[in-house]
Amino acid sequence: MSFGAGRYLKHISAPSLRHTLSSSSNLASKATLSSDPSPTRLVSSPGPALRLGGLSRHLSSSSSKMAPVTKQYDYIVIGGGSGGSGAARRASGWYGAKTAIIDAGISGGCCVNVGCVPKKMTWNFASINEAIKAGKHYGYTTGEVSFDFKSFVEKRDARIKVLNGAYESNWAKEGIELIHATATFVSAHELEIKPKDGSEAYRITAPHITIATGSFPTKPEKIPGSQYGITSDEYFLIKHLPKKMVFVGAGYIAVELAGVMNAIGVETHLFIRGNTFLRKFDPMIQETLTKHYEEAGVIVHRNHPGIKEVIQLNPGADESDPREKQLKIISNDGSEIVANELLWAIGRSPETRGLGLENLDIKLQKNGHIAVDKYQNSSVEGVYALGDVTGQAELTPVAIAAGRQLGNRLFGPPELKESFLNYDLIPSVVFSHPEVGTTGLTEPQAIEKYGKDKVKVYNTKFSAMYYDVFPPEEKKKNPTQFKLVTILPDEKIVGLHILGDGVGEMTQGFGVAVKMGATKKDFDSTVAIHPTSAEELVTLR
């Protein structure tokens, strides 16, 4: 999520702002030279049948029933998030295609506004608090340290506004038209546009339309009182910290945000259905991090039976200030807990509401994601989808990469007409406390794919030098643990899983090596950088 985007992703970036966002494919088009003076720029030409078809449909309907077609583009992208921006910028900025982005919300999508960016900045805030507390072990006398969370949030929000402007500035520089509106499919190549400013609706056409509308966090509507809780979107509205907060979920969003709140002194409860969280990750990651969270102070409710009801104890309280909220959370086993805030992190749904996909008879997966092939083609010719709305590796860099490859294929030179994103071996990081980095197969996945006799695993567990001056009992609570999953006979590395301080930066470089097909021998032949935690990966025995 990517932590997604348009009307589309329900998004909130400031306390008084509540709105929706529109964020981020069948045949490569024939390319013809553009009138653009640059001879390297190419645009696609819609066929005469498409142009006449659209005109015929327009002329056969009365203006009172049908909004007029006013503009035609080479390429339309619905959603101004990471994936949509990547696709549009490649098509227009590189190849000169006449391109429009349709977005009803704030530019940048989920990642910029309620995802990666504010999350990482808040993670930094929490990490600084942890470092200050650790100072005493190094001989620092810090005394009573306080912080102003509201001041930090205001600075974070100001930075996000700068990024919103940067997105729009880059689009303008590359000739992309930004339309602040919602879009509904009338047909595969025609959209009805309803401007955000309330002006008259109209229609636009293009031979290529990409859906990059992202996803939105969900609440369990069947649970009475679930509306009193918040999602990750509303989390970034918090300016005053609650004393006690409950998180429901075992995925990376719940783990990251719970880790942050615990690190800055909030009594943090994490409800998980199983015995560990991050259950899609390697068992080493699951077990080590779950145990560490408990030792760090997070109250993990393992094998939680589920929530039966949420009761608001003080209905007159200021909903924007978690310090004033009082929620009684009743579980299915009858147990109760009263907290100031409840955050649902139980999953995200593809943002397809209002798109008019029923007018296309487009194929959807069982969970509502748009079905696509490796080229991002949907089941409807000329309509593409990428990013969270497809459910493919829901990460911001993945959506950007998929968008760029699609732009290359549709509008680039002949040698790029088969371009597509390979979704294998995508590195990712969980900004937990400490961080988790991973790429490739987990140990169980490797055994299932290659057979147990073909898989060889290397493990190491140690305390990073940072903790050498900590008391032994504190040092034990801060493990660093690495795992390499290899396949015989040449011990090619097919999985890398690392947990510890600093592994977020470490994962990118090792991700390149694994992507290139590195073997254990390649790692062994690399001279270690000492003293670092990373050196353990090239000295494993």
Protein traits:
541 residues, alpha/beta, 5-stranded antiparallel beta sheet, 28% helix, FAD/NAD-binding_dom, 3 domains, disordered N terminus, 27 strands, cytoplasm, NADP binding
Q: Helicity level, as a percent range? A: 25-40%
- Alpha-carbon Rg, integer: 25 Å
Poorly predicted ranges: 2-64
Number of helices: 13
**How far apart lie the N and C ends?**
36 Å
**Main β sheet profile:** 5 strands, parallel
| Count of structural domains | 3
The SS-based structural class is alpha/beta
Brief overview:
The protein has helices at residues 48-59, 82-95, 109-114, 116-134, 149-173, 232-235, 252-263, 283-296, 396-411, 443-450, 472-476, 503-515, 520-524, and strands at 9-14, 17-21, 31-33, 42-44, 69-72, 75-78, 99-102, 177-179, 181-187, 190-195, 202-205, 208-211, 215-217, 244-248, 267-271, 299-301, 307-312, 327-331, 336-339, 341-344, 348-350, 383-385, 428-430, 436-440, 455-462, 480-487, 492-499. With 541 residues, the protein is α/β, with parallel strands linked by helices. The strands form 8 sheets. A 5-stranded parallel β-sheet has the order 8-7-6-12-22.
Describe this structure in words.
- The protein is an alpha/beta fold.
- The protein folds into three domains: 71-214 and 351-416; 218-346; 427-538.
- The chain has helices at residues 48-59, 82-95, 109-114, 116-134, 149-173, 232-235, 252-263, 283-296, 396-411, 443-450, 472-476, 503-515, 520-524, and strands spanning 9-14, 17-21, 31-33, 42-44, 69-72, 75-78, 99-102, 177-179, 181-187, 190-195, 202-205, 208-211, 215-217, 244-248, 267-271, 299-301, 307-312, 327-331, 336-339, 341-344, 348-350, 383-385, 428-430, 436-440, 455-462, 480-487, 492-499.
- The strands form eight sheets. The protein has a five-stranded parallel beta sheet with strand order 8-7-6-12-22.
- A hairpin with a 2-residue loop joins strand 9 (181-187) and strand 10 (190-195).
- Helix 2 runs parallel beside helix 9 and helix 4 (116-134) runs antiparallel to helix 5 (149-173).
- The radius of gyration is 25 Å and the shape is globular.
- Mean pLDDT is 90; it is low at 2-64.
